[in-house]
Amino acid sequence: MSLSDLERLFGLRGKVALVTGASSGLGKEFARGLAMAGADVAVVARRLERLQAVAAELEAFGVRAYSVQADLQHEEQIEAAVREVHDVLGPIDILVNNAGIAPVGRAERHDLEKWQQALDVNLTAVFLCCQHVGRRMIERGQGGRIINISSVLGEGANSVHRTVGYAATKGAVTNLTRQLAVEWAAHGITVNALAPSWFPTEMITDPRLGRVHDEQRTRMEQFTPLGRLGREGELLGAIIYLASPAASYVTGTVLHVDGGWRAW
Ligand SMILES: NC(=O)c1ccc[n+]([C@@H]2O[C@H](COP(=O)([O-])OP(=O)(O)OC[C@H]3O[C@@H](n4cnc5c(N)ncnc54)[C@H](OP(=O)(O)O)[C@@H]3O)[C@@H](O)[C@H]2O)c1
Questions:
Q1: In this predicted model, what pLDDT tens digit does every residue of 96-126 receive, in sequence order?
Q2: 199 Cβ below 6 A of ligand 1
Q3: Which of 105, 119, 140, 199 is most buried by its number of CB atoms within 10 A?
Q4: What is residue 2's predicted lDDT score, i.e. its pLDDT?
């Protein structure tokens, strides 16, 4: 297989991608993967300085990168961000709904405010981003790719942290993905979910320790057949694949990148 065959399968040159929650963690890696494959990438989150640093790294791949500050809990900010990306980089071909939060608290006492925040960021914002970008994709008539970042906890309980709202929203994101895949297949838009297990980002870091809590790490490792957490770079292949021409016949699916967590 030649390099140009690989480029035809996995290359994203000329495509425009929008990645939410790219100011840290997995979102940064997804943005990097898409830029590596040649896409121009817009990064969206609340912390603008961090986004600007990410965008500068992306430009090193020879692509255009653009940062937009937005709080995805507000529909008007989602709409404005999508419009801005469209105006600056052009029509969006690839949407990665990655932004997420995982409020912690025992189910029987889970604060309604935390529950609502999880719903707003992890589910409603995903739906609204799909809607605002999806409408434009449908109007343009050239298809598109939507990749929703769910979790292995979209299909099973969290046995490590008490995150009832998170588990509920990730289950919903997985099924939202299937519904949109079916409704938008006629428009050539594929909609898939990527479901990671444990990766040591800010989300699973104990703020008091500045790292993953030892006991929790042991639990994560014990129930992962590969016996460890995910490492930086181990999601690059999955995001490039789902966004690429190689995945043109893949829709409504959940791709687990989880060291075997869901295998048993
Ligand atoms: N780490 C894991 O083990 C793991 C496993 C499975 C799935 N996931 C999923 O992967 C995704 C990324 O998580 P992560 O681990 O990379 O966590 P992270 O480092 O905490 O990143 C979360 C991102 O979401 C953004 N965000 C949060 N609230 C937002 C809001 N209201 N508006 C805009 N952006 C917002 C944050 O940016 P700002 O704070 O700058 O707004 C940040 O960039 C999430 O959907 C998570 O559920 C993570």
A1: 999 999 999 999 999 999 999 999 999 999 9
A2: yes
A3: 199
A4: 85
Q: What is the pLDDT of residues 51-99, one digit of tens each?
A: 999 999 999 999 999 999 999 999 999 999 999 999 999 999 999 999 9
| 98: nearest Cα among 49, 149, 156, 46 | 149
Angle (CA) 25-72-35 rounded to 5° is 45
Given 3.30.1360.120, 3.30.70.20, 3.40.50.970, 3.40.50.720, which CATH number is that of 18-259? 3.40.50.720
Q: Is the CB of 193 under 6 A from ligand 1?
A: no
Say how many Å lie between the CA of residue 141 and the centre of ligand 1: 31
Domain boundaries, the chain: 18-259
Ligand 1 near 205 CB (within 6 A): no
Q: Which residues contact 226 (CB under 8 A, 6 or more apart)?
A: 259, 260
- Please confirm, yes or no, whether 166 is among the known catalytic residues: yes
Among residues 111, 108, 82, 114, which one has the least CA distance to residue 17? 82
pTM: 0.98
